[in-house]
Each structure stands twice: as structure tokens, then as C-alpha cells.
Amino acid sequence: MEDRLEKIESKLALSEDFLEELNKSLYRQQHPIEQLQQELGSLRRQVQSVLPNEQRNSGNEIPPHY
Questions:
Q1: 49 lies in a domain?
Q2: Nearest-CA neighbor of 43 among 52, 51, 53?
Q3: pLDDT exceeds 90 at position 14
């Protein structure tokens, strides 16, 4: 019984360590993801301000050679 309890405690400790490492990894990745989202939004605004309205909506039209 004692051996079984030690194995369970060991597995629990390993699981807790693994979970902590996953949390740290996610935390480190969150900031770069937020920066990329901000840059993407900025680029979208820049493209929309440069392109005339007709060009932005012309993606749904069939090209003249069809």
C-alpha cells in the first residue's frame, strides 16, 4: 500500500511540474501574439486608407478576361 501511495504522489508531483511549465510557456507566448495582433490591425488600417473604395470591393468581381 505504501509503495502504491508513493507512486501516486510521484505522478502527481510530475503532473504539477508539467502543468507549471505549460503555464509558463503560454504566458511567454501571449505577449508576442498580442503584439502581432496589433500590428495586423495597423496594417489593415493602412491598406484601407491607401486603397480606394472600388479596389477594396473589386475582389468579388469576375476579372474581364472571363
A1: no
A2: 51
A3: yes
